[in-house]
Design brief:
Length: about 525
Amino acid sequence: MAEVYYVGVDVGTASVRAALVTKEGLLRSSAEEPISIWEPQSDHYVQSSTEIWEKCCTVVKNVTQGVERSQVRGIGFDATCSLVVLDHSFQPVPVNQDGDTQRNVVMWMDHRAAEQAVRITNTGHGVLSRVGGVMSPEMQPPKLLWLKENLKESCWNKAAHFFDLPDFLSWKATGSLTRSLCTLVCKWTYCPPEGWDVSFWTAIGLEDLLENNASKIGSVTCSPGSPLGDGLTQEAAADLGLDPRTAVGASLIDAHAGGLGVIGADVKGFHLPCEDQPITSRMAMICGTSTCHMAISERPLFVPGVWGPCLSAMVPEMWLNEGGQSATGRLIDHVVKGHAAYAQLQEQAQQRFPFTGENIYNYLNSHLSLMANSCSAVDLLGSSLHVWPDFHGNRSPLADPTLKGMVIGLSLSQTLEDLALLYLASVQALALGTLHILEAMKEAGHDIRTLFLCGGLSKNALFVQIHANATGLPVVLPDQMEAVLVGAAVLGACASQDYSTIQEAMGRMAKVGKVVQPDHELQR
């Protein structure tokens, strides 16, 4: 019998990726395409849903070359929690002042609605208890309110459909307007089984979104991985190079897909504190441009400054709390590439790794080890330099998007060693931010004993080790480093009904690759 496959599609901040994944969770092939980001003014970040879909089609065709279409049993999509605006004919509607219709996506990291978010928080409405008590400008209600107040003629009055980007992709694939509970519960204040809270939308001046049975924002929902419609439409199948009616699973936000790709792994034999413990003893960290901290519980836990509890937002019938840091990989890049010694760093890295393609961060990690002289831990090199990492505000647990970053301990020196130390201090600051989130979650009732990391920063050995050291917890890295793509493929596997539940699929398809233990000498 021919091997069966699932396709996972991940739309990140700056690229679209796809992977062909086996029933056992092994990646057979992967592809990536960049996508455009426009910044028409400060704190405004926009994209094109048309371009995103075209790139999805390109990468899916690339990864399925050489296999029979009938071998692809299902497809799943994940994406950033960006806001897509379409008109009555499902055509793009512009979300910025210049009126370019192709630029119809308000990105997740767009903070134009900071003032609207504050006003929503000041209502003190009960739904805010499920977002840590504070409405973030990265959620959809403030962005919708901004569009109504600032682009009423050119956008608001023309809009007929507001999609979270993951739901846009599943609609594009199937024609189904059913929304995933992941997006609506986490980013839109939807609360099953009651649904939309009329009093909330009325209180913030967006009651018109509930007209016609909330047709603009969705009235039918399902759990992630549920089969949508009749699978791929004829048009979408032709675009993607797959068979019509191929199963499509209800989508996930990208970070949540990463959670599925790691948190359910079988840990027997690795001597971890979460072994023989419920899955609630694990926290998934999806570390890339930003970082999301995912913890699940059997009952709702309310954590100040942390989003949730959200029912069935990642694992069906489990409650999700989501902490986060708005800028992690982006912060490290900002600090390193903006330093006066960056050109020297590039030159040195090229000289040391001329053929292997090693990146500048591998060089910096090696350089820090040399600076530590093997006499002491690299961590101690940063004892006189301190970074407050909230250069793009604090998502959790302070929930203050107005906070700024700072560096304490700078001198007039601008050598490569100074750059390495600033890089180290930034990584340490991010790890201590994770500790801050963990402490808030534990105080609210979570019992987290092991961290499961995935995403681009999980490939940085120093970043991983310092997170283990700062938190005192072991870190599990996945067998397949592209865990977000595995998580997206899990959705397709569930939709195909080859697995009966999300829990069964992630238990079979997610696997432990490596365990990094904390340096307990540093805890003393």
